[in-house]
Structures are given as C-alpha cells and as structure tokens.
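INPUT
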Amino acid sequence: MTKNNVTSGDVARLAKVSQSAVSRTFTQGASVSAETRERVLKAAGELGYRPNALARAMISGRSRLIAVLVAYLDNQFYPIVLERLSLALQEKGYHVLLFMTDPGNQDSVVQRMLQYQVEGVVMASATLSSNLARECAKAGIPVVLFNRYVPSSPASSVTSDNIEGGRLAAQFLVGGGHERIAFIAGNEDSSTNRDREAGFYKGLAEHGTTIWGRAVGGYTFDGAADAARELFGEKDRPDAVFVANDHMAFSVMDVLRNELKLRIPEDVSVVGYDDVPEAGWGGYRLTTISQPAEPMIEATVSILIEQIEERVVKRRAAVLPAELVIRESARLPGKNKRIKSNRA
Amino acid sequence: MTKNNVTSGDVARLAKVSQSAVSRTFTQGASVSAETRERVLKAAGELGYRPNALARAMISGRSRLIAVLVAYLDNQFYPIVLERLSLALQEKGYHVLLFMTDPGNQDSVVQRMLQYQVEGVVMASATLSSNLARECAKAGIPVVLFNRYVPSSPASSVTSDNIEGGRLAAQFLVGGGHERIAFIAGNEDSSTNRDREAGFYKGLAEHGTTIWGRAVGGYTFDGAADAARELFGEKDRPDAVFVANDHMAFSVMDVLRNELKLRIPEDVSVVGYDDVPEAGWGGYRLTTISQPAEPMIEATVSILIEQIEERVVKRRAAVLPAELVIRESARLPGKNKRIKSNRA
DNA sequence: TTGAAAGCGCTAACAA
DNA sequence: TTGTTAGCGCTTTCAA
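OUTPUT
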C-alpha cells in the first residue's frame, strides 16, 4: 500500500485511452485492439503499473485465494505437501493464505479466512470442526480434507487407500514369519488411524492370525515412545510392530534400540506409514507404506479448481493407491524388493 | 464469494441504523454508543454478517497481509520457522500469503505479492533477487531476510550469530583433541555459510590450528553425501568435521557410518548447525550449534510490524546468540555438558 | 472495439 | 455519537 499510487486511471491518462481500455488489456479474453493494447502496455511499463488484486477481487468476486489450514508441521509429511500444494496452486494462478490452527482457535480461523473471501479451503493435518464445515457450505466454498475424511460432512477428501495400506503391512509382516504382531495407533479419532488399523486387522485375519498387542501413540513423537515402552516393556514382547505413521515409527525405533537394546529387525520388525524423507535415511531405513503425495496433491487441486470454476460444491472423495516400500527395518518374507498394492 | 451476500448495508437496514454505524461497530476504537453497537451486533448475528476484509483493505490501505517466501521445505528448520511465524503473525492480526519460490520464478512472485498489496515480506530459505529488493523498496514495503542477509541491500535481516557459532564449533572440536579437522560448506554464496566458515577458521586459528580439508555440499542432502565421500575417501582422512547445517550433517553421518564403516564419534566427530528436531533423535544424536528459532521469529515480527505501523522502512539487522548443544556425535573436550556462547 | 457510467463493500471525512 | 457523502481501484454493463 503505502505508495503503490499508480492506478489504471493514471495509465489511461498517459496512454490517452479510457480507464476501461486499461482494464481490458489486463483482463484475459477482453476485446482490445492491438494498437490500444500496445499503447496501454507502454504507458503501464513507464509508470510501473500493477493491477490491484484486491480491487479486482472485489468487483469480480474472484479472490483467487485458497486457505490452507495446517495444525503442526513437525511430521515431515506435511511440509512437503504444503510445498507441492502451493506450487501447484501458484501455477493455476491461485494463492495460498496459510493458517495454523489448533482445536482451540478454529472458529476464529474460519471467520478470518471467510473475511478474506477465499474461494476454497484445504485442511491438512488439522481436525475439521463441524462449524467450519457448516460455514463453508453456507458460503458455497469447497473444502477438501487432505489425508483425512469425515463421512458425515459435505467436505471432499483426498486420502491414500489406508485400508489397503494396512492390509499390505499385515501381509508383509505375516509373510516375514512374525508371530507376535503389535500395532501402535495414532490419534484414535482420525480416519487415517481407523482405516490403517482396520486394514491391518483384516490383513492379519486373512492370514489366520490376530493382533498380539496394541498401544496408542497419538501421532506424537513422545506419545509413540511411551506406547513402545508399554508394549515392549514386558518379558513376552512382540516380534513385530506396525506403527500408524513414520513420524511415530522413528520414535519407536529409538526406544527399541537405545532404551530396550533390541535389534531391528533381528529382534523386532518395524513398519511405518507415509514414507517421509527420513524413512530413507541411514539412521532408520524404515520399511513403510508410501503415500502417493504427488497424486494426492493433484487430486486436491483438481477437485478444488473444478468446484470453484463450475460454481457447484459437491462432495467428492479421492482414494489413491498406497504401496509398500521395503527397506531394512523389517524381516523379509521372500526376495521380492517391492510389493505393489493390488488395487491400482 | 459465491454467496457471502450479507453486507454492512443489509445489517444497517435490519438494525435501523446507518451503514456507517455498522462499519463503526466493527472497527477498533470507533465511537459508537453501547445501544447502537448492541443493535448492530444483534442484526449482524441474525444475518451472519462478516466484514469483507478485501473491501476494508482497499479503503483503509491496510491489507494485513504478509508475504512469506520460501524456497524448499525439506530442511526441517524452515517448516518449524514457518509454523511459529504464522502463529506469531496471526496473533498480531496479520495473515500469511505463502509463496514457494526458486530463482527462476522470483520476478513473477514479486509481481503477484505486490498485486495483493502485502504490507511486508519475509524471505526464509530463499535467495533475494535484487529486483525484489528494489521493487519492495520502491513500494515502501519492509522486507526482512530470515536466516540470511545481503549487506548491499535495504532489506532488514535476522540471523543467529553465525560467526560466533562457527567459532564455538571450532573451539569444541579442538578441545576434543582432534587433529585433522575438516569443514563441509553449504551454499558458498550464502551469508550463513560465509559466516559459519569464517567463524570456524577464526576459532581454529585462535587455538593455533588450521583447516585440514574442505568440501562443498550446497546445503543439499545428496550434495553433502558427495562432499563426505570426497573428504573421507582418502586414506589420510579427517578425524572431525563441522558441517554447515544439520540437514547435511545427517547425510554425512549416513555416508560415514554405512558406506565408509566409520564409527561416530570414535573414528570421526561430527558437528552440525541449526539443532533441528531430528538432531535429537536416536539415529543421530547430533552435537550441533542451536539457532534460537523463537527469538529469531520474535525479532522478525517486531521489525516487520514496527516498520509497517510507523510507515518508515529502514534497514535493521538482528543477530541472536547461538549456543552449542552437546550430544553424542563428537568427542567431548571435558565433562561440561553445555557451553554457552560468550556473547549473550 | 471503445468510452461513460455504475457500483463491488467498505472506511473516513464532514456536518449535524 | 450519528448519518451523509465521497471515494478506494477496479470490472462490467451499456451505447455508441
């Protein structure tokens, strides 16, 4: 603000055309003659004119702003998603208005993003309050839940096939000859945890076995450490554990190795979920279920843009295939290095 | 947009007051009688009225938007900064417009953020193009460089005391009795690398020694791995290495341990810079120089807000103290567990 | 294709 | 304290 004085009127005066002519040269698909256009561009260049996006948004009803709500960025999955998502949105001419939320401030966040006339919202690593969903629906703004879903809500969702992912983990662990297989849950209210866990149990059942032990880590680093201590503290400990995400799996591995002096995978096999960059690092070499970040982002953007441009908000749910990535934190079933999901 | 029909006019009609009365009840410190205020609030509540931030920004010249430019989010230092920064800004009533930039698209990013009438910009993990600096200066918009600085530019900066941090690393490594001390540089054009390296050499000199070897990792994971191979491939290898940031240090540790079968810290001591969360993880236990993220963010916000509210853009440079955090990746000099910077 | 005119939703003088 | 009035910078009819 402060100083961005140059308006379309100034340009018009210099170019000796009407102000609307200036506006037209700067709007896609408006009819301007080549000559007018050139004069306007020249004048604009001389003055350093830049259309005011706020004014444009007001009159056209299109802010080209997308609210992205994020709750915490310490799980590396989300920074990467945020990076790719911004990039993809930028490419389509939209811009990201970033909000950090926690359950406590979500109502004020909703108000603020709606005041800024955002055209869509994506929620990643954040819990959807029913209030948010309602307000957005009322305003006719599409919202997509990234890596989560709420069946009862009108919000769209994009997830990996968590059920199938859980099943893959079970199949791999059973195949590896493990006999006491445990699970460390994330946040029990989350759809990701529910589905991964359900798929995992289903997979175990398909191979005629069941869960040996279970603890809850709440998707936090410290919570996972406690869960690991609880599960592996006894003499009769599990010989394999499926952890609901990589972020927790690292913490579990730390406890197993450093506190309990167990070897991975000789004493215990560990399988995670997400395939964040650290999973490939030498300190962990974590066998995990990979979430297809890129396709998930593409789906998010296309759902959003479509609903914005067609001006119809309808619930859509994209489920992208997950895939097992074998590294060294779990004993191998055979010699195949990569098992694909059988649901493409 | 689509549907947020309710305007201050609608509220005014229902409350039977003027439209300005409505505006006043929603602006800080405007004079409205308790009665009017109440009637307006009631009507607003019934209609679900929400002031349009865009319209407000236009007329008042205050968008309350801050552009945050980021280049890559795979170094965990930045996601965490982004999280805290958004939170701090949100608390002050500002909002983050996020831009992912690379040297190639920076010009278009500048144009876009200026179109949105941002009131300030912070650049983290991104190189400042002189064009950006110039355009912002012309527009009277304060910019603060986070974790970097450009001496010749009008942009403010917030950094840790990288020179002193480098010195601390040298002192610690020399104290640990190492005799062949090497350095792995980040991006050689960056101020962080220049200062950390200069401080490191200065520290070595103060103890009557000099650098044994040096390689460049470019602040990337793969680049650091190559640098480590280059430096440690020879028979006559270093017995200690200071790596210009943690992100690279992890990669270096992976190469040393897994490829070269060297023990840390028995064969080689490794010291990093940043103290990202992973540095504390069991897989690395990295001794490192901690950047004071919280104070750095506070400084960023206060520089920004002050310049926005006083409407004067002047160059300021905040340098916050760095501190050695001792873990297990480097041999100890004595038995003290924490050496503070001597410049508070 | 062009210009004149209206007006998006709001804040900020100004007078009352 | 209140209402009236004049715009902020732009897009979009509407006639020409």
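end of record. Residues 7-9, 19-20, 22-24, 27, 30, 51-52, 54-60 of chain B lie near DNA strand C (CB under 10 Å from a C1').
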